[in-house]
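Recall that a protein's primary structure is simply its ordered list of amino acids. Everything else, from secondary elements to tertiary packing, is in principle encoded there. The following example makes that idea concrete.
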Amino acid sequence: MATGLALFVAGSWVALNIRGAAAVLERRAAADAELAMHARGDLGPPRRVAYAGFYRFIGTVTALCGIVLTLGGLLESL
């Protein structure tokens, strides 16, 4: 049940883009891709890995899984 609540909170945080969470994940992915390219010696522009909308979708799926786990824990305790 605790894992479900944690997943729900984390997924909701990204899905609802609270304090720009999805935008931060998008910028972090772009920076990581750029660092990986520089390490390989490729100095061109980094390619887009994922957009903020993708992270919001994944956050929504994670939040829904958290709800399922939480409800499963509650039903099991009855």
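The mean pLDDT is 88. The CA atoms of residues 53 and 69 lie 24 Å apart.
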